[in-house]
Amino acid sequence: MGNNVLIDIKDVKKHFPLSKSWFEEKQYVKAVDGISFSINQGETFGLVGESGCGKSTTGRLINGLIKSDTGEVIFNGKDLASLSEKQWKAYRKKMQMIFQDPYASLSPRMKVKDILMEPLTIHFPRMSKQEKIETVKNLLDKCGISEFHLNKYPHEFSGGQRQRISIARALILQPELIIADEAVSALDVSIQSQILNLMKNLQKEFNLTYLFISHDLSVVEHISDRVGVMYLGNLIEVASKQSIFKDPKHPYTKSLLASIPQPDPSVKRERISLKGEIPSPSNPPTGCKFHTRCPLAMDVCKEKVPIMQKLNENQQVACHLY
Amino acid sequence: MGSLLQVNNLKTGFHTEDGMQTVITGIDFEVNHGEIVGLVGESGSGKSVTSLSIMQLLHDTPGEIIDGEIIYKGEDLLKLSEKKMRQYRGNELSMIFQEPMTSLNPVMKIGKQIIETISLHLNMSGQKAKQHAVSMLESVGIPRAKDIMNEYPHQLSGGMRQRVMIAMQISCNPSLLIADEPTTALDVTIQAQILDLLKDIQEKTNMGILMITHDLGVVAEICDRVIVMYAGRIVEQATVKEIFNNPKHPYTKGLIDSIPKIGAGLDELYSIPGAVPSPKNMPKGCKFAPRCEHVMDICNLEEPALAMENGRSSRCWLTQEQSQQEGVVGHGQ
């Protein structure tokens, strides 16, 4: 695992306008409100947070499905915001996405082989049909789907098999970065573990970099090297997996970890479960956005936005306590 | 403690193009007063159909109860008239569903929805019913309960809606609460709040809860006893400690081992090969045999019975042979 930065995100913002009449003051949902982080080549970066914290929007900003308002997304040294639509095509090939719902993300009217051949047809127009079929067969085999299924439609597969097909579709163009947005959340545990193992093996084989977006902290702990925690559009803590799970710094990270039900009846969860709910991103609290729910909130938290600071080699946190 | 609900040999089937397809194949279990029983299994194992069968809410599905008894407080619910059953639902037994947005009426104010239940079952009216509704909302930790009475479900967050659901379901003080994946759609911090709330209510009222979930973390946290279902059958039944410390059935063990555990530092997770069989293609013998790593000849030929031993039961030839031959067959890994 090298320390080459593959993707570097600098102060990216995305505010979605709320539709209001022309005369009223415009309101925005601050989905992503200035975040910065980087992912190294061959690494898995886990992005966690509650619903509405902006983790999916972040994923989409990186691969250009949504354009950011401000900030830079630098992929392999190239600022993606400066690219024209035409130039984007070459970069789309290098970053692919796996979505949550394998029932909705595969076209129900296309055969498996057509689903997988379509990206090849678009990006390698000179490839012969025979070559394409061979590539598809090879990759499907690596993803655990036998070539016997090539002519089937998605509805003939189970959820786990569909997710394998989605993974194969993401890998067919030999991307460098895979953005997996809740890729295993819709699956049963026994299938979830199969898919997680598959993703880990494929990562080794193809030297892939993952941005793994999930609300499930145990899954993130299993697969990630580094983890970022988001709250209301901001990153509040970024650290190596070891640091964040053994020694979380931000009070929000602490309470998130304490909320996970442990599959072990002898462990009693401490009841520091967070009070209240995540505030609306269209009208976030002033200062530190977490101060309304924070058990350790001080006066300064209501006024001043905490800046991300480096605690040590492995850990960064945005909190006035440090 | 005494038996509150006893399900005997319950069989439920679905009408399909190929005739009647049995999806629950004769299950037996009980829920006692003041006990939280977890019903776990993967999608398609029949846990939700079991809960709908108990509530007799299968009208809107192609499902039908074929056989069995559902004894609630000594009375067979399956023999009751629909009119009588309606008096029981919401009053004696009530149910919380997974998705609080789809199970609340979107065009009816929250207060009105709760009062509807209360006035139907508790013979309260007007101001009294309203007061009871507000106090129920307060008891589940809803701030500004009086204002919320006049709001619509879409104005609330997911966690708040689930609290409203719970308030509504416990408003008539039922003895049995069936909770079908009540926290699955919620964030982990909200899930922790709702689990704490359910536990508190259960301790206060001594009601029995049948908790249907696929999340073994939730089971470990809140349940006293666990029933594991696979392909429409019960494959193991034991106390929560026994299930996690010493699972007898290879499926239960596989499920527990499949969960990523924080701090375990494993490179590869355990995974059960294959997938749940479809009702059309059920294996002949043990339904888990094609995925089982301990499979023996007999497993493919004959389905083992749910054998009871020391108060816990398991449907597996391994444990049954073991008990017959005094440990000659190892339960090795």
Automatic annotation (TrEMBL), chain A:
Ranges where the ABC transporter domain occurs: 7-257
Gene Ontology biological process terms in this record: peptide transport; transmembrane transport
Signal peptide start-end: none
Domain of life: Bacteria
InterPro entries recorded: AAA+_ATPase, ABC_transp_ATP-bind, ABC_transporter-like_ATP-bd, ABC_transporter-like_CS, Oligopep_ABC_C, P-loop_NTPase
Keyword Nucleotide-binding appears in the UniProt entry: yes
GO molecular function per UniProt: ATP binding; ATP hydrolysis activity
Keyword set includes Nucleotide-binding: yes
Keywords, sorted A to Z: ATP-binding, Nucleotide-binding, Transport
PANTHER family: TRANSPORT ATP-BINDING PROTEIN
Family in the record: Belongs to the ABC transporter superfamily.
Name of the protein in its database record: Peptide/nickel transport system ATP-binding protein/oligopeptide transport system ATP-binding protein
Native source organism of the sequence: Sediminibacillus halophilus
Lineage: Bacteria, Bacillati, Bacillota, Bacilli, Bacillales
From TrEMBL, chain B:
GO cellular component: plasma membrane
Membrane topology of the entry: Peripheral membrane protein
Alphabetical list of SMART domains matching this protein: AAA
GO BP terms, alphabetized: peptide transport
PROSITE patterns per UniProt: ABC_TRANSPORTER_1, ABC_TRANSPORTER_2
Pfam families: ABC_tran, oligo_HPY
InterPro entries with a match to the protein in the record: AAA+_ATPase (IPR003593), ABC_Ni/Peptide_Import (IPR050388), ABC_transporter-like_ATP-bd (IPR003439), ABC_transporter-like_CS (IPR017871), Oligopep_ABC_C (IPR013563), P-loop_NTPase (IPR027417)
Keyword vocabulary terms for this entry: ATP-binding, Cell membrane, Membrane, Nucleotide-binding, Transport
Residue ranges constituting the ABC transporter domain according to the UniProt record: 5-256
Keyword ATP-binding included in the entry's annotation: yes
The keyword Transport belongs to this UniProt entry's keyword annotation: yes
Major site of localization recorded for this protein: membrane
Name assigned to this protein: Peptide/nickel transport system ATP-binding protein
Protein source organism: Sediminibacillus halophilus
